[in-house]
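Hello again,

I reread your note about wanting to compare the complex against the isolated chains. To keep things tidy I'm splitting this into two emails, and this first one only covers the full assembly. Below are the input lines as submitted, including protein chains and any nucleic acid or small-molecule components. They are followed by the predicted structure of everything together. The single-chain runs will come separately.
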Amino acid sequence: MTDTAWIDAAFTSARPQAVGALLRYFRNLDTAEEAFQNACLRALNSWPQNGPPRDPAAWLIMVGRNVAIDEVRRNRKQEPLPEDEAISDLEDAEEAMAERLDGSHYRDDILRLLFICCHPDLPATQQIALALRIVSGLSVKQIARAFLVSEAAIEQRITRAKARVADADVPFETPGAAERAERLSAVAAMVYLIFNEGYSAAGDTAEIRSPFCEEAIRLARLLLRLFQSEPEIMGLTALLLLQHARAAARFDADGTLVLLDDQDRSLWNQQMIAEGLALIDKAMRHRRSGPYQIQAAIAALHARAARPEDTDWAQIDLLYGALEIVQPSAVVTLNRAVAVSKVRGPQAALEMIEPLAMRLSNYFHYFGVRGAFLMQLGRNQEARVAFDRAIALANTSAEAAHIRMHLDRLMRDSAPRAAKVSQ
Amino acid sequence: MLYAILCYHDEDLVGSWSKEQDTAVMKKLAVVQDRLRTQGQLGPVARLLPTTSATTLRKDDPPVVLDGPYAETKEQLLGFYIVDCGNLDEAVDVARDLGAANPGGAYEIRPVGLFQPGDRLK
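Full-complex prediction:
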């Protein structure tokens, strides 16, 4: 590792705790961020010479707090800033002090910081931009690049989100158990949102946004360390790991989406799969099921299958059935239908999705799946209509390309028959 | 004498390494490990999954199963080596070499009392 790489890694890992603590002191997001930035600047001067502090987060909290307080004083009295040496004297006291200041708080500090970003008034894109900027410390430039919009647009999005958050008056008292559980569930949903923003990207954007997936996994692990006995957080972390484990196999060289059945399973990341499976094992012991655990269990069944034909579709059908109960949605039923088609055949699956037609009339996957079932039933004309509709609704060029592949197959299949008729 | 070298590091920090940084560290460690292997000094080596995947059994009566690692520490047990060294100085030197390849954190060097290679796990 280069000299500065470890410092960057230390900043990244300390950031949620440090900004969270500074936010509690100053009760203002901008002040907290600025204090953290200033502390990082001091660290860049001090750490390469003095070596890394025992507890980088505590160091950054202490220094950030003192610099900010000095700034306030200086503005008041126009006094000069203290020298760096004066600040590094703090290091002796750093550990004891920070422990006393933060030991009992840091869990709620981090949770609050994340919770602020997922305020219900904020649209999803603003939540994601805010979390990536404030919690993860991604630069406006990085975020703008990932969203394919200008830096000014992201800057504006973050400024608006901050203004709305400031008006929202998030309480700074230590939350009670019910409040904490509520915050945790909102934060988990936002972490999943960040992951999906990366996961659903395709083509050129897939590469740019894959850091979103990694960041979401990092945040999920962070939450799990704070809330070690929460089966749903184990489930969330497992779900993200198991899905991201397939990243290298999900696109071909042209950036076309490769479906699960066609993926080269040797490209799956076995370490991530092992960690995901271990977490589901742990979660199951609690016998408190939830949507993340169920989805993770489904992902685990795919991960456990060495070949597509080894997939336990009957079990997946059952798990989607359980998911329909705890989190009923047309999309879940649509996914279940895919499992049903493998277990009971395309006719049963088609019947299952017919009632969803109204609700999913603008949903790409509905028509893709419907087309596939019809194709399996040999109803090619209807399949073609469904595929055409899917292409019209495709969100990415990779999705459209994938459906076009089906259409080409249909054309090939029907070509010899057409020839026969003309004979 | 067999020594266990227990690897402690801030897991949060190690988890923040980019894939490239992680690979670079593993590559540097492999050089040291290869040398030890050639010298016939290297026993089992393990890198543990994150502490979030850990479960602890407290051997109370009755035993209690807890989520998470045994101890909440600033630096976590992330892996271990078993090495065969003539004396403690040699073992410390091995740890020093490993440490040069993977700076940060700490190694605890502990003589091994009983060693069963468990050759079913090859």
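For quick reference: Residues 9-42 of chain B form one domain.

B.
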